[in-house]
């Protein structure tokens, strides 16, 4: 309990502190399981799911498995009443294995193989996404079983991942797809979009919703069957080292835009990052150290090829904390364990003098971290240990 910790002075760093309870839990977990670890808090997942659900009262939330496809996450959200967004046969398998009723799922990958469609249909998932005529044609054999969403593209240079560069079509192309589907007797249920992961400004959603409303009106003007569904995708932001708007405030203009849609339109969202980012902390230990060009280099047992893969794939800047506390700080580098020179987590940061075995904690490590980790150089991925899976202990581990 006497343990304290120091916060790293990152460039644009927000204060991140660990409670005495958290520190004790981290130390006892490493004593029991060894390092590196990922500590997953199911209470955080429940809390984030309900926060978004409350902020979007008329929207059905489908958790996108992609950022953290862990069975415990699926189980926890299933119990809370969530729906799910699947994109691959592996994700279909995970949902099926955890007993997710297929009616509570949609399949949102815009580009699929016939086998992917068949796997999802065999499970019972009926809703799929298309953004071009080539993809639409793949559904001719399944026209009696499927309902499709047409994905529109809205570019977003500010997001961590601009998901409208690779996927989505223009409003005119959407109308062509909808007309063609009518001719081919394939049911188009509605429209979808993804404004980009970690979207900072809600106006991106507002603009996209307004454009979709116009497309829906044009569908009716052309004498096509009215669309019943709008899927506003994922992208809801969380605070890493840069503070973002609280979610209630973020969703106010989105709800206003949604209120302009006809009442018959059912609205869905596909949040990923927002639900899970806060739920994991990473814990790595110092394997060795050297002084190089006036800086202390600490080599950790987790790095860019492991839990910190998001530094490469996701643009995230994770708040880092050392458990050791000292007033005297030195210019330091945190590096990963592999023999590759790009395997560096943070440079030019001020740290206390660390010993081998000292622990470094990464916060906000739930989304796009272990999901994209590799075993490069045969360094094993961090083991994930789960807390608060059953709500016997309502104490919150990660605040
Ligand atoms: C990745 C992805 C999501 C989740 O996005 P977040 O930014 O993590 O909320 C949702 N839908 C689709 C189709 C995706 O590819």
From TrEMBL:
GO terms for cellular component: cytoplasm. Its EC number is 4.1.1.17. Keywords: Lyase, Pyridoxal phosphate. Its cofactor is pyridoxal 5'-phosphate. Pfam families: Orn_Arg_deC_N. The active site is at residue 339. The modification N6-(pyridoxal phosphate)lysine is found at residue 66. InterPro entries: Ala_racemase/Decarboxylase_C, De-COase2_CS, De-COase2_N, Orn/DAP/Arg_de-COase, Orn_de-COase, PLP-binding_barrel. GO terms for biological process: putrescine biosynthetic process from arginine, via ornithine. One of its GO terms (molecular function) is ornithine decarboxylase activity. Belongs to the Orn/Lys/Arg decarboxylase class-II family. This is Lysine/ornithine decarboxylase. It comes from Vibrio mangrovi. The lineage of its organism: Bacteria, Pseudomonadati, Pseudomonadota, Gammaproteobacteria, Vibrionales.
